[in-house]
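Good morning,

Attaching, inline, the backbone tokens for the sequence recovery test we're adding to the shared suite. The designed sequence is right after.
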């Protein structure tokens, strides 16, 4: 089934690794009736060179786990490397559309990647995007403080971080046929955050995306399982992500 394939990419964030997306991939493999080793791992080294391990499957939705060996890389560098990876994968496997799930800075990088699509005709088109705990408007202690920034009644954040402002200024490049699921957590303490990313920071991307994309959904999880590094392993979230990606067909 070389023609018409539609891969699903899983992207970790800052200080993450293959363990970040492992539970999500295991859950996706299980719900699609695949074996535990039926996915491709794309490893991007410190210089941006890509090596592959595992299998690009012949079914409709090959799963690709993206791993940055430099765990300290920022969203702009992630964006650059992801674009290179997409071109390399398309050259090898000839697909034109893909879906993606990003955790933390990986979520931000995927939005930045989407800004490039209209300017690059050969680039594969992102159709479904899952954002998990994305620091779109700062990280607590790094451009954001608990309960300082706020979302106005019209959805616009009171303050914009440099990355958020960049997305905002290029908002017309967002794909209008994109379907988005934005997941974020609130552990229930005074910070209104997942301990690292405030609800305001994660939610503020709606001001940019919701008026422009085909479909925008939000999913807030509360309690101890809403902690930043636990969100990608939570069974409730795994089911929600799988439902959105695999059981929610495009019209």
């Amino acid at each position: 089934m070389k023609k018409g394939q539609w891969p699903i990419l899983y992207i970790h964030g800052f200080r993450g690794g293959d363990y970040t997306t492992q539970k999500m991939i295991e859950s996706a493999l299980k719900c699609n009736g695949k074996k535990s080793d039926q996915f491709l791992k794309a490893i991007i080294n410190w210089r941006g060179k890509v090596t592959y391990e595992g299998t690009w499957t012949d079914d409709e939705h090959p799963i690709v786990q993206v791993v940055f060996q430099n765990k300290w890389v920022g969203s702009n560098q992630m964006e650059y490397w992801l674009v290179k990876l997409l071109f390399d994968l398309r050259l090898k496997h000839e697909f034109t559309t893909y879906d993606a799930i990003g955790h933390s800075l990986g979520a931000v990088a995927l939005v930045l990647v989407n800004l490039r699509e209209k300017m690059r005709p050969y680039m594969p088109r992102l159709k479904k995007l899952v954002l998990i705990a994305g620091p779109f408007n700062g990280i607590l202690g790094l451009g954001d403080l608990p309960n300082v920034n706020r979302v106005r009644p019209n959805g616009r954040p009171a303050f914009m971080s440099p990355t958020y402002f960049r997305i905002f200024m290029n908002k017309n490049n967002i794909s209008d046929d994109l379907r988005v699921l934005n997941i974020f957590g609130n552990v229930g303490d005074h910070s209104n955050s997942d301990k690292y990313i405030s609800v305001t920071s994660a939610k503020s991307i709606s001001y940019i995306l919701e008026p422009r994309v085909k479909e925008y959904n939000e999913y807030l999880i509360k309690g101890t399982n809403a902690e930043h590094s636990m969100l990608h392993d939570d069974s409730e979230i795994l089911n929600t992500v799988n439902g959105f990606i695999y059981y929610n067909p495009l019209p």
